[in-house]
Specification:
Elements (H helix, E strand, L loop, with lengths): L6 E3 L2 E3 L4 H6 L7 E5 L5 E5 L9 H23 L1
Antiparallel strand pairs: 1-2, 3-4
């Protein structure tokens, strides 16, 4: 786990991402999606092109499911 400070950047606020992570995930100059869940967490995800068969509603439903059941899924994965 890394701890970062939120800092002022123009009229917005920002958090830096370690350059190694950016390189590993090929994120330089790429769009990212910011999500805020009901548990007060902010999630930063790469915005990748999706199959035309996957609708935005489906993506939101999966994201909502993952956010709601993340702890249960982690425990199942650890078994």
């Amino acid at each position: 786990m890394l701890v970062r400070k939120v800092f002022k950047a123009g009229n917005s606020f920002a958090v830096s991402i370690p350059s190694e992570w950016v390189r590993q995930m090929n994120l330089e100059d790429q769009p990212v999606e910011l999500l805020r869940n009901d548990r007060g967490e902010i999630i930063v995800k790469p915005l990748r092109e999706m199959s035309p068969d996957i609708t935005p509603d489906f993506v939101r439903a999966v994201d909502s499911f993952m956010a709601e059941y993340a702890d249960v899924l982690r425990r199942l994965a650890d078994r």
